[in-house]
Structures
1.
Amino acid sequence: MPKRVLIVDDALFMRNTLRDIFSSAGFTVAGEADDGVQAVNLFRELKPDLVTMDIVMPYKSGIDATREIVQHDPNAVVVMCSALGQESLVMEAIEAGATDFIVKPFRGEDVLAVVKKVLGE
Amino acid sequence: MPDASHKYLTLFVAEASEHLAALQSELVRLEQEPPAAPLWDSIFRRMHSVKGSAATLGFMRIVDIAHAAENLIARLKGKHEQLERGEVDLLFAATDALVKEIVKLDKKEEPEGTITLVDRLAKAAQALPDPALLVQRAPKPEEPKPSADPSLPRLDVVVTLGRSCAAPGARALIVQRKMKALGVLLEMEPMPAQLMQQKGGARITAVLASLTATDEVRQALVGLPEVEQVEVRIAPAARTIDTPAPPRRLTPPSVPTVRPALTPPPVDPDELRPEPTVRVRAEALDKLLDQAAEVLHGIARLRERARKLPENVAGSFDAEIDRLRRTARELHGRVMSARLTPFSSLTERLPRAVRDLAHRLDKEIELEVQGTEVELDRTVIEAMGDPLSHLVRNAADHGIESTKERLKAGKPPRGKLTVSARRERDKVIVELRDDGRGMDAAALRRKAVKSASLTEEAATALSDDAAYELAFLPGVSTREDATEVSGRGVGLDAVQRQVESLGGKVSIRSTPGKGTTFVLELPLSVSMANLLLVQVGGEMFGLPLHRVVLTTEYDLSARGGEGFEARSLVVMGQLVRAYGLAKMFGLPSLAPPGPRPFVVMEVDGLRFAISVDRLVGQEEAVLKPLFPPIDRVRGLAGTTVLGNGRPLLVLDPRGLAELCGVHEPIKPPALAKGVA
């Protein structure tokens, strides 16, 4: 069974880039969300194996969304996608329950390396 | 390595451009109102989004600028005093520089150096405290020193983080969390917070009290991303235990025990979210519109053919064609409405423009924009960009007085400029209102006479309201001095021409001492036009019906024969100049001698007539723009395709008027406006 991933980012550009990375590695992109509110709703609906979560987003930040997702499902695997110079936000996200993180700019193999490790593959 | 061939480059350019355009307005708001947290958040988010995507593409110049700007934004947000002009200027400079970089990307040009700007942003940021550090310094609730059963084995753990680790602080936090899940973490050096913003890997040492086997601890930690090496040893001081110990976990993963079942957020942010949308390239919509129009043309052709069918078949055929035509029209309408663009896309750049103008002119100007949600066809929006900027410049430069002048006149020192849009049936009314000095009717009259647009008598006969409209004549200005920013009058004629070419109207209302309002009546869409079809010299032409006053027949041959250049007709009791269309375009006139049809048209209140060989009929047609080289021919407005498949040139009445010399301001009798 291919792993199902939910991609959360407010930039369509980033979502498309991540979608290509995951699709080419045999993942199924179960859904995409462009803000924190949608992320929480889609997580509950889709129950994906993995969430990639942007931090700075409108309506609800990736940190708050992660907190809600982990409260809903303590086993949720949420990987934060952060940009350079956001370390304190990433640390806040980890404290909120994020499993791991990747830092933009990333290459496809960096993303997949982190994701495979956190999924225990 | 910049990836200019990335398949999502266009998408990046589009998204970044949108963020930067919105940033311009938000930065202006920053100066105008006491900045609130949501405004700062939005500004930060936009800059951040541009940076993140650019980083993925490897556009490091964009990343550098956006990153430096983002840092400054984060620090300015924490600053409690009033922002300084210089600080906001710097953010504007960053936005401008990013726009430039993006434009270059779009044109696939190599970007140039940006080091000085990044330096200036960094210097400004360094002068302010770092919010991230402030948070860290905030006293955290003191954690009790961890203690563990002295009988538990102590493990010495050394974790090496890879040199490429981009966020060692965050990575160390994950290592810390993992160790806490394996036992009681007694010591850790350095702590995650100490590793923040350190580059080039790290070596973490820790003491863990745990019954977990050393190998298992090692495996668990090595399994974490970016962890290069892990050493786990039983501390020499501790009591040894048989290595294959039962893998008894001491502490469950740190999940708080009491958890509310998902607390609902206080306000449902769902309500804040706009309707879901799909991004479509404007070009794709243009093509779709073209094709929908083609379908309409095809149906018109079918109908034409059906006319030739025997009557018993024609009836049922007609009904089917009618049904098809209704659907096609609806389709066309839907594509048209998909092309609708909010007025905000026109006004987005105004706050910045007004701010810069005000600074340059040393005036205080407040801009209010209303009706940003009103939608117009993209063609109208695109055509109105320059005219609107021009009117805004005019108002700021000439309409609104200097602060000193305003105070003397008992007005508030800050001038106000209001740009509004509202829908009225099939029109959109755009108003640009200033509370400045108003227009000077006497000066306009003088100017018009001086520039030979008007005779002295005609000028004095004009009411003040009619005199304001003189500003639309080329070369008439209310101010003697044309300034660097704008010269009133210069370009107002261009504004009028542009609005009218869209089938709209522009008028002026002004009250001395109180201000001036420009009223622009714009069509919701421009592509469909009702045409009067006329034939001249074997060629068919279309004339926009909204310009046609009436058609009539005259026998001019009785009064001087063919080949006339200009004659006068009496139309509704008024003398109207008449011109031959055939002559204008160098075509032979094929009309038989005797009475011939004339089309009387009106442009700017001026009436004139053109003679044609034959009036053919009316048709509603989808106007297409002219293509080179015929776009340079004066008197033409566009092309269309008729139901019978024949292409048709559509005439531009304003151009015709100019071609005839009716519209040139030199001819005093032509300026009947306001007198009639």
Note: The CA atoms of residues 44 and 73 of chain A lie 9 Å apart.
2.
Amino acid sequence: MGKEKFIPILALIIIIIGGTSSAYVYATQIDKDTITINGDEYTIDQIFYLSGKKTIQTIEGEKTGVALDNLILKTGVGCPYCHEYIIKAKDGYQKTVDWEIMKTGVLTDIKKVFFPDTPKAFWVGDIVEIEVK
Amino acid sequence: MKKIYLLAGILLFGSLWGFSEVLIGSTLHDAGLPTGAIMTGIFAISFLVLSRLIYRQPGMQFGIGLVAGGLRLFNPFVGCHLCSAIAIMAEGAIFEIIWYKLSPDFSELKNVIMQTSMGIISAYFLYIGGYIVTQILTPIASGANFYLENLIVFLPNIFSSGLIAAVIGGAILPVTFLAKKIDISVKDRLYYPTTLGISLLCWFIVIGNWFLA
């Protein structure tokens, strides 16, 4: 196949892949008011009631929220440093962190986690689950 | 002489791209727009294609990506410094791969359909490629581990958001091709003062803001 045919066909395939992926993302997006932590559902108010607040300094200034280390302990996770934690957003974005990172972070009332010493790629927003692995 | 001439071009286009990422990217981000897709579809495609058309020197666009990514590291305003810088550098390298097989006079891209198609292909692969590379390298560069499963579950979202970049790239490339006839002569007395002057201005403004932020 010559370039004159290959290039437009590839462009068309890309449009189809992009369109199909958009439909898939829209259909599979999780929309809920609670956050699943270690298999149990919690509202953001319950989370703030359970765990104490902490303020951390980030490159975007101070962030105040629930201390993630305290939250994990309060939700019944034993041996917290034995696990890894997958923080999942409603659009499918997720990041896995170990206890060393987890214990430095906060979960704010806008359902977003912040860590003081990680790139912003780890600041997952619109959280729907924290899976203990 | 030709090497210095090309290096000046790399510095100019890399600085302009990095400067756009910092200033315009910040504005788009504040407005809640899909910054990455817009920046790739408009600015990455424009600067990379324009430099390829003017200088006709494969390999140059990789250098432009390195300069732009380097400048993006100094962005004090918004976003993930490291992630964006890695993505921009990757985009320069991916562009080289995509355009490697094209003939030196771009005879394949003689009509608007071919130019639009090439714009779609270039912008889409630049965007998703840059996104994937940064998802892999950012955790590693920051001392955290990379988890393949995190990338795999998010791939549909990356493929989806790349569609915006592809559509914009398809519209931008034919416009950029209008500049195909630009001829920059190495003998032009204004070439070096202009390229170096504009580049220095871009770096001065971005680094100045970095200190002020």
Note: Residues 2-207 of chain B form a domain with the Arp2/3 complex 21 kDa subunit ARPC3 fold (CATH 1.10.1760).
3.
Amino acid sequence: MGGPRGTEKAELPLTALRDGESGIITSVGEGHGGGHGRGGGWGFKKRLMNMGLTPGTRVTVVKSAPFHGPLEVSVRGSRLALGRGMAERVFVELTK
Amino acid sequence: MTEKKLTIALAGNANVGKSVIFNQLTGLHQHIGNWPGKTVEKAEGTLHFKGYTIDIVDLPGIYSLSTFSIEELVSREYIAVERPDLVINIVDASVLERNLFFTLQLMELETPMVMALNQIDMAEKKGIRIDYKKLQKILGIPVVPTVAIKGTGVYELLERSVEIIEKGEINPPMIKYGEEVEERIREITKLIEKIPFRYPSRWAAIKLLEGDEQVEKEIREIGPEILPTAERLAKEIEGIHGHSCSTIITSERYEAVGKIAREVQQIVPKIRPPVSETLHTLTTHKILGYPIMVLVVLAMFQSIFTFGNYASELLSNLLYGWEPLFGGLLGTGIVKELVWGGVVEGIIAGVTVALPYIAPFYFILYLLEDSGYLSRIAFLMDTLMHKIGLHGKAFIPVMLGYGCNVPACLGCRIMETERERLLAAFVTTLIPCAARTVIILGLVGAFVGIQWALALYIIDLLVIFLLGRLAFKALPGEPTALIMEMSDYRFPHLKTVGKQTWFRLEEFIKISFPLIIVGSLMIKLMEILNLLGPIANILSPITVTWLGLPAITGITLIFGVLRKELTLIMLATLLGTTDFARVLTPLQMIVFTLVAMLYVPCVATIAALVKEFGWKKALFISVFEIIFAIFVGGITLRLLILTKV
């Protein structure tokens, strides 16, 4: 896709959000080795889920650390640090 | 019933004040060991209450009850298999939703439970009010509000716990999933009920649908015919929802949790953000965060070394003062040499390092951890650590390594996977610890120039970077990205911090002292038997031919395995002078220091590696580092000669 930003219902990776922006999680990628939640990505995805990043949840990017560092996100009333590798696989729909 | 013994387990997410409650409950009657066969710590304590002797088991802090890390596995196995009389679930009131997620999973393990709703004061400060009576009613378990750090509610917590145990088994209502999921859970539950499985059947059924590897493995051994059915049913659910089965179950759990949280909590946003919030913003700031971190770390090392140098001198003066006493007792023969020079000096060496440096080191570190600052450092350093295939949390053991490699190796436990623990431990053994700093500054810094000492540090960082990257590529497996909670800053509980320091110190002593003593004894024996000269000669192809050093340095490098700073002291003894410029060329000093800096840290670190990773890996790392150090030393020598510096 050319420029997903700005369009109303585009799916964006969490890393595309600017500081202070929020989105509703649409899906969480499988990571490497995919499979139906049973492959190599199992631990990774499960971990994100267990931290509360489930589809339908609202998540806010508070800020990101410099030099392509991790994101600070706010989800379900808790504050999480998410490495880029994790955040890239969380897809959201931008909300106002 | 003559002896009324009870066992209560404490379970909860990380950073909810669990260890504070543990300390409030058990006071001084506690001990720390390891879970059988695991590197996970097991803290136990005893208390007496209303005629009962109660054993309190502090389960490791976790995020959920799925097998992602060893901590989680240990906890759920304990609850389901050892069946404590009761589980106290400790919950951080200021992050209720995330914590309740864990509560619901605990309930699925079908254990009697009481909830400690902790840190209610902090929640209030954030503007969060929780109707705990309503929560109690919804969950069907007693909920006791507590402020552990002040001891508030701890007595009542115990009272309610004993009450629940006396009343006998209560089965808290479990959450219900969507009917299409429930139906399939029931189907699998029926199958599991027919086999002698050690976990509750319904729980196991849910775990099978979630694709839990550990449960699958155990079921395969006793009822392999269940697995295809479970897989088929999971596929059916996936077909209905279009998400993976584990996603659906987790989502539904969170949905249930969200509903409860909305019902019981009232959030009134504060006009002025609490101090902890401001602190968080500052310490994770894009620009300001880094200078603050540098200042904090420098202040930490500065205070440790100032205190350490002072206390160490005081202690060694005191302890070495006993030598005449020993002389009087044992005479001046071989026995005295061995007992004093081998055993006692070994102990003194250990004591003068452990107490003055390691103890304050741990204390400050736990202070920083308990307050919440370490997770901010991990946040800031994540990018850098990724260059060597680790994430931000690995910076904590690395930082520890500059003080002493032993706690650093043990500190690698915070990493999530075995692979990362090993990788992080390997990197930390290359960090110049305080003892190596003594050599770098005392030899190169003092006699060649401070810029050369600095160059050595930079070389060391390059080496760490290169080897770290190599190891990261060589070790099978994938890197894990950072995911951690940054809980609110809070005032650390000094007693808990002190206790943690003490337990760590005890562990350090247990690991390092025996080896330091045996090592000192062996070297003393070699000295008495006049073996040092021949050994120096055997080593001379390496020391003289390859490294261009005097033959005698071979012996000092062997001594260095015991304690690195001994290398310098030995060098002075063997060369007969502390004016190293008279006996060594600047080039020799640089090469010598470089080798001393890079080869295996010391015997205590090797012991720590053995404890954490087993003999094979420890031996491999040690041998590799020795060969590598010698190799780099020789190359550097030739390079420096070539460039005629």
Note: Helices of chain A lie at 42-50, 84-87.
